[in-house]
Amino acid sequence: MRILVQKFGGTSVANLECMKQVREKVRRALRDGYKPVVVLSARSGETNRLLALADEWSTDPDPAEVDALIATGEQVSVALFSMLLKDSGIKARSMTGFRVPITTSDAFGRARIMDIDASRLRKELETHDVIVVAGFRGVTPEGRITTLGRGGSDTSAVALAAALGSVECEIYTDVDGVYTTDPNLCSTARKLDRVSYDEMLEMASMGAKVLQIRSVEFAKKYKVPVHVRSTFTDTPGTMVTQEDCEMEAVLVSGIAYDKDQARVTLRSVPDRPGVSAAIFGPLSQQGILVDMIVQNPSRDGVTDMTFTVPRRDLKKTLALMEEIRARTGAQEVLHDTQVAKVSAIGVGMRNHSGVAAKAFAALHAENINILMISTSEIKITCLIEEKYTELAVRTLHDAFGLNHDLGNA
Ligand code: ADP
Ligand code: ASP
Ligand code: MG
Hints:
Strand content: 25-35%
Bound molecules: adenosine-5'-diphosphate, aspartic acid, magnesium ion
Helix content: 25-40%
Shape: globular
CATH topology of the largest domain: Carbamate kinase
Structural class: alpha/beta
Distance between the termini: 45 Å
Number of strands: 18
CATH class of the largest domain: Alpha Beta
Radius of gyration: 23 Å
CATH superfamily of the largest domain: Acetylglutamate kinase-like
């Protein structure tokens, strides 16, 4: 049995017309001799609508109930799509994370997949043409519904592809591949034929929401080739796959940005062993992802500690910092939400120097002030004022020769 996992995002299943386009992609897989396992997201806007309802009903919505609520979006999609397939004579049935089952941790709202038992799904494929699985959702060992974090249907799909031994995982969306930067922000962005798992990991973690970061981690771990392509055209998309020599020849392959950032500073905190642990320990216990961290040189036994967190976690972070300020005798807690991260990413950086200098010079030429810097082997990230995000993305895109009408730098 040749299985192909095909995932369709929110805009691809937004309405009946869109779902008919999805049906064509499924029909093609059937014609090519595959047994398609179709993973669907909620219809576009639905998850946001449900989250807004939770906020309307409760001042502090219970995370487990929020998951029970927002998981319904995907259930609607799979039921409707299965009906559509059946009307066209295709033997289909829908399944949720509970029925498969897709077992996850109990970290509601950001649950991690622990196990997929693919035997029931395989059995159903013996008597059906297509199985339609609700993305984004899983179930705890105790049977409670969980969700995998925003964009989590990508992860459901890649994890299912790994569990079922799918030849590849097709991710259908509203753009026809992974671009050098967000094509909706930069009209000169160029489609990449291939991108390595490591580059895609950095792009996803630095804000390129075309794939959820966990899906790329799964793909890399289980060596699942991921094909990002459009629901609305037939052009080949981008293969996310293992690195090769050709990829290394390119210095920078993409620019990502993330506006969901806030900067927090703890001023004049005593500079003694254990202070960093006291600050970052409680943040990690609350599941808050700290990204950039800068500690100033100490003066008179005190230092300033500055870091960034996702903007949605700012309220919780400030409450924790206020406790730590009082406990350590630090002077004050400052914060700023008008900031954004821009990143240049490329495996070619491993063997080249001067990439950071080039990025800084390009931002300087546009008079964009850099507030914080962080680097990894294949990435340079600058925190800047949010109002310069679009300009910074275009400037870096241009500086590294990524425009579609030019060669690469
Ligand atoms: P879906 O609902 O299909 O999962 P998403 O909205 O989650 O789709 O992801 C697709 C969007 O990702 C695109 O519309 C695009 O604006 C955005 N995006 C950001 N960075 C990139 C990039 N480098 N290449 C392609 N798309 C990108
Ligand atoms: N519906 C979920 C979201 O909007 C999951 C997904 O679309 O991948 O985040
Ligand atoms: Mg998505």
